[in-house]
Every structure is written in C-alpha cells, then in structure tokens.
User: Fold this.
Amino acid sequence: PIQKMDYIWFNGELVEWDKATVHVLSHAIHYGTSFFEGIRCYETPQGPAIFRLTPHMQRLIDSAKIYRTTIPYTLDQLVAAVKETVRANRLRSGYIRPVVFRGYGEIGVNPLNNPVEVAIATIEWGKYLGAEAMEQGVDVCISSWNRFAPNTMPALAKAGGNYMNSQLIKMEAIANGYAEGIALDADGHISEGSGENLFLVRNGVVYTPPLTSSILSGITRDTVMTLLREMGVEVREQVLPREMLYLADELFFTGTAAEITPIRSVDRIPVGTGRRGPITAAVQEVFFGIVQGERPDRYGWLEYA
Ligand code: PMP
Assistant:
C-alpha cells in the first residue's frame, strides 16, 4: 500500500491526503480518460532535486493536447505546483505523480463536456525493479501482447487508458516468473517494456527503437542518449528485429521508475556474458552521479524544489 503523505495538490490547492477524492461517475474511471507523469525527486547536498521537472510537465501538456484537452494551468504554474507539493510534504527523495483527468459531468464517450481536473501527489519510493537488479540485472520475456498499432492508441500520449496494455504485459511476465516483459510493436519489431524504454548494445554501438515503434518518448531515454553520446558512444535510433534481443552484448531498460536497469536474460537466453556489461555500468555511473548531485549538472536537469 502507498505510504500516506500530508497533502495532495488538487485543482489549485493543497488538500489533506484523504480528502483528494473523486466521484465514481468521473469520466476517467469509465473510459481511462487521464494523462499522467511519473517524476523522481533525488536527495542531493543542495536539497531535493526534481529530475527534469519542466520536460515532464511539458509532456503532460502534450499528452492532453493529443486528446483535444487544454490543462487549465500554464507550464510555469504546473512546475510551481509540483515544487509546492514537494515542499509541503517535506519530500526528500521519492516519486511525484501528477495526473490530469476528465471528471464528473456526462456519461457518454465524448469527454469534452467533463471538467479537466488536476492532481499532484508525492510518494516515498525506492528502486522499481529492486536494488539488486541495478547490478545483477533482471530476467525478462518477450510478451505475447503487442504494443498498440499506430492509428489505434497514440503511444506518445502518456494516457491512463494506454496502461491497460502495459498491465497485460506486466501481469503475463510476472505470472511466468519474469520481472518484466518486452512488447513488440504491431509489425513485430522491438518496442519497449510495460513502463520502460529499451536499449541494446552490439559491437560497441548502442541501439534503441525510434518513436515510430509505438514507444513513449521517455525522458530517461533522452537523458541516456545524451550521456552516451557525450561519452563518445555511437547511439542509433532505428527499427530493430526481435532476434537482436537474443544477440545483444548488453541490454538495459530506462525509465523514471526503473532508472537504468540491466537485463540479464530474455526468454531464458543469457544476454552477452549474463552479467551487467561495461557500457551499461558506465552510463549508470554517470547518471547516478548527476542525480545525486555528485557530478556537474551541465544541462540543468536538476530542478530544486
Ligand atoms: N515507456 C512507458 C510505457 C512508460 O510508462 C515509461 C515511464 N514513464 C517509459 C517508457 C519511460 O519514460 P520516462 O523515462 O520518461 O519515465
């Protein structure tokens, strides 16, 4: 269960945690009409640092826009609201969950006559796939579920309804004894995990599927591509066939929750030597150095509360 904190920011003001409730006939409950973000806050010597807060809130605005929805707050107001919530809850490190949803109004499928509601919660949280996983890596499978095809659900929107697909991938993986599932896109090419982007290393080159492979445009993905290029590693965004997963020297997931998590096997086939590879370890070291405030933040990724 979620550990309660003091406040949730709800439609413009901080309310007590238990008072942030919605009506059962809210549109989002019936049709998945919501947009959300997941953001990490890290403890640093200069205080709590929210990782790439502004790009996360811009992605929230973009997700809503795809569904003809204007959030009734500006980017600056949303950024300020997250910082206010972090301060009010005295969060030092953890997870921030902003959510925009269509509330109570009409029962029909058309959402546009239902109010746009906004909430921001903070949650204390550790490693998503486990602390040991960061070094040892996780065992994954290729899911029998594909990601949604283009022109069905827009993958670039981080929308609540999309996560019904993620839930099928995740539940199947766990039921079969894996930590996570990798979904292929509608053409059978590599897409992503249920809540993570995927990177693959072969012969010293790093590959990751492009936005056209039904992925979310991950902020950690962007971060890792930037860091790898800075380290002099070639990164190619390209369509990847499934069997590249079995031939990779290294594989890792990226995401706000997963951070950078190595993958040690796919469908019980070991990845490379079956241990965390050198490129994975090197990019992890740089990433954690920056978010913990130990390495210079040259891109302004840490936004202090
Ligand atoms: N893909 C999906 C489906 C996700 O839910 C997430 C987590 N937001 C990601 C990728 C990784 O995105 P980010 O690095 O922005 O957290």
Residues 38, 166, 192, 195-197, 216, 218-221, 254-256 surround 4'-deoxy-4'-aminopyridoxal-5'-phosphate (CB under 6 Å). The radius of gyration is 19 Å. The chain has a mean pLDDT of 97. The first strand starts at residue 7 and ends at 10.
